[in-house]
# Entry
Amino acid sequence: MNYSIGWLMANDGFECACGKRHYGLLKDCIIGENALLRLPEMLRKYGGTHPFILCDTLTYEAAGKAVTELLKKENISYTIHIIERIHPAPDEKIVGEAVMYCDEKCDIVVAVGGGVINDTCKILAAAKKVTDIYVATAPSMDGFASASSSMERGGLKVSLNSKCPDVVIGDAEILAAAPTHMIRSGIGDMIAKYVSIVEWQIAALLLGEYYCPTVAEIVRASLDVCVKVAKDAVNGDHDAVCKLTEGLVMSGLAMNYAGISRPASGMEHYISHIIDMRALEFGTPADLHGIQCGMATLLTVQAYEKLMQITPDKEKALAYVNGFSLDGWFEHLRAQLGHGAEAMIAGERKEKKYDAEKHAARLEKILDHWDEIRRIAGELPSSAGLREFFVSIGHLTSGKDFGLTENELREAFLMAKDIRDKYVIGRMLWDFGILEEFADAIEY
Ligand SMILES: [Zn+2]
Ligand SMILES: [Zn+2]
# Structure
């Protein structure tokens, strides 16, 4: 099957062999030349008579101004609020501003910006129960069409259920004018899918997690498109930037289809989360989400490459877990992450993944399925090939490039497995008793 955004939009709500009926939730997706001109038509289609427009200082210049001019021309009244900050944080302040400036007469929300503005408007539109139209200003991440918002609440990174935008508008000229670093970020966020698809299959194999081969195929198709157009997209080619944006929308739809984040994120996203958590707590360096996920994919792929070369050693694994101090590990998390560690510690108290008996059972399963795990991981690109690809499009290949130290990156690799109750390679390395030696061997 040749999956494309057109196919997905035309076949929404299809019955799948996995037993689920897959819904995308996105009602209209307009990506291409002059896409913005169709905003008035979308407002009319969804019964919006007085839109509330949210943007920030930069995205006002990129597209917000054009949106207001278009609405004036069409005699559509509106309320606009410009967040007077460069790169506002996705926190209580921006959500509060959105709520407080969205007055009574606003019956439809128009988000004009990148991920933060989109995520904020998803929350606002969900709370007000109104239609949400997203005018994208950069193809920088894959959250366009997902039904959740990646936020910072009380200084902690959280993923909040919100809503999928009803309409996504991606105007070729606006998207192509986005800073190249943001375009590369979108590519990095897609490259992460190599790992997420592999880890999803491994989790299904070892833990019986829900898995849908069709959704995995859709993600692979969108990833292929993004890789093919990457170079031209970075150079600002309109067609390539539109294809990249379609790929990002497809990835978000795939998450909606599965109802879980598995198709779109794995170990590499958790490494990125650790970097974000430390940045929030201690002010350490961080970069765009997709840039971090891209370079963390390179670390994760290296780990898989090394893992495929080992001969599993059951005695070593059991001895390692026998000598493991859970309290010692909790102290380590607290020292490295500050109060962000508490949610991870509470997660472990509930999940008990480090329990010796649970480990022994899991280890047996891994050993029983070792050949199958190796076959699944064979789907990954080589780390050398991936590095070459990143260099060819000017994407960062190391966290050191944005100021992190080797030790900070090594620690992020060690702690990533504790972020969520998801089986990722960090956990398998721990299960084999080789996590630290792998962390030492990786090229950061
Ligand atoms: Zn399915
Ligand atoms: Zn992502």
